Amino acid sequence: MAKADIDFEKELWDAANELRGAVSENNYKNYILPLVFLKHLSERYDIVHDELRKQLQDPKSEYYTTDKEEMNYVLEDTDEYRSRNTFRIPYNASWQYLKENAEQDDIKVKVDDAFDVIQELLTEYNPQLNNLLPRIFVRSELSPKQTGGIINLLSHPKFSEKENPETDILGRIYEYYIGRFAMAEGSGAGQFFTPGSIVRLLVELLEPYKGRIFDPACGSGGMFVQSLKFIKEHDGDKSDISIYGQEMTAQTLRLCLMNLMLRDLSFDIKLGNSLLDDKFPDLKADYVIANPPFNVSNWHPEDLPDGDPRLFGPKEEFTTDGSANYMWMQTFWHHLSDTGTAGIVMANGAMTSSTKGEKNVRQHMVDNSMIDAIVRLPDKLFLTTGIPACLFILSKNRDGKDGTHRERTNEILFLDASKMGTMASRKLRVFTDDDIRKIADTYHNWRTVVTSSDPDDKSGSYREANEIYEDIDGFCKAATLEEVQKQDYKLTPGIYVGTEAEDDDGIPFEEKMETLKAQLLGQFEKGEELKQQILENFDKF
């Protein structure tokens, strides 16, 4: 991590610590993030306002005019700002105004009033954004000094999008806080935060260049933001993707909406329980990327209609009140387009669960060739839960008819990444770029069109653009459906990939045995000496 990033983080956490004593740590996000969001909208307005003013004064621009009245009309025209993906922010709701009044005794009132003004603009633009910025400062235990302190800290030039164009600086601040608040929130944070390592891996596996992306358990929107980063890194166009999401917690939904607006992404995010109240019944997505809550019990499958189109069979046989894991799977599959792919974070137990309502679904998925790959993850990737996890990749393009991927209907790729990752701290493991590349490349090489140099090669090696897929002991194995069926439909990668080969040190086996034998005999002798010494000591009493 670069030194600049460490300084960046320290100052951001200092800003959060202004809340200490007046607000519990797991509520920091409700105060800090709306202010970061307001700052973003205010700075976006300033940037567009300055651009418009320059165009009005530039003789080469179609906006050029010397008429003061016309200038003012353009600079105050709401549509000019909306067409540039921002809002015209009145001065009393601007970041500049809050900064100038940060030392005033009524700063809490001024912040809430600014929220009201911006909320009105947001609701008029999109009713889904209603109640995004509720009045929370006046009724909080925060002192005016603490409120002003946060505003002053967030006003640092290094946190300014105007001072640092093209850096997504406010987006990075937002991401940092969501991560830190997840640490503070503990196990309850899983509902809005998936660690960056896992999100990056999922996105690299699925490669969502263009099309409809859906996350029916979208939390704070991390899957969408990482998809955007992937598109940028590969010189794609964010206008090529459409984002759909559902989230059941209103507070988390607010985080998601702000997160997406910070990135100027178009979206349709709805509030509701995806399992019992699917808000997008007709949506068919090219990519489903999700980290649903693990092992949710008492979710009331009896409330599902008998003919629910998501179910693979009768609900009595294909659901269980003991865990919603496989209802999520059926939901994801239902929402895939004819060539769509889903990447899902799941509890490890889903790979082997023998409960009827879960095993029936898993068996159906294997028998009907729905599962493309399973990735076992290492421990300590989550700060918010100790439950070991894996990735399920489901796909509807396994028939090889899309022209890009080969036919693989009779195979499932198993990847065991349980020994990968690096400890970033005593409690948290992260995947390095190389780890992510190795896992994603293995998957991509396995599923791409076969152009083998040897048409008679049946060994399980595939070649495309000089990239070769091969089974590697202890890491990856392309198993047939028959092999999985013989293992009673268990999907644990370790069953199929075997044990990683020991590094050969070049010493012959016989020589190793002689050395071990000599060491053992020496230890026996030493043990006998100690035994005699202890007995002699007893005799002295």
Please give a structural write-up.
Helix content is 43%, strand content 13%. It has 541 residues and is α/β, with parallel strands linked by helices. Strands 3-2-1-4-5-7-6-8-13 form a 9-stranded mixed β-sheet, with helices on both faces. Helix 2 runs parallel beside helix 11 and helix 13 runs parallel beside helix 14. The longest helix is centred in the last third of the chain and has 31 residues, at 509-539. The protein is globular and about 100 Å long. Mean pLDDT is 81; it is low at 1-7, 185-193, 457-466 and 501-507.
Radius of gyration from the CA trace?
29 Å
| CATH class division of the largest domain | Alpha Beta
Shape, per Cα inertia axes: globular
Distance between the termini: 63 Å
Measured by DSSP, the beta-strand proportion falls in 5-15%
What proportion of the residues is helical, as a percent range?
Answer: 40-55%
Give me the secondary-structure category. alpha/beta
Any idea what the CATH superfamily of the largest domain is called? Vaccinia Virus protein VP39
Count of distinct structural domains: 2
The biggest beta sheet, please? Answer: 9 strands, mixed
Q: Tell me which CATH architecture of the largest domain applies here.
A: 3-Layer(aba) Sandwich
Question: Low-confidence parts lasting 5 or more residues at pLDDT below 50?
Answer: 1-7, 185-193, 457-466, 501-507
Quick one: how many beta strands? 13
Q: How many helices does DSSP assign?
A: 18
What do we call the CATH topology of the largest domain? Rossmann fold
Mean pLDDT comes to 81
Strand line-up of the largest beta sheet: 3-2-1-4-5-7-6-8-13
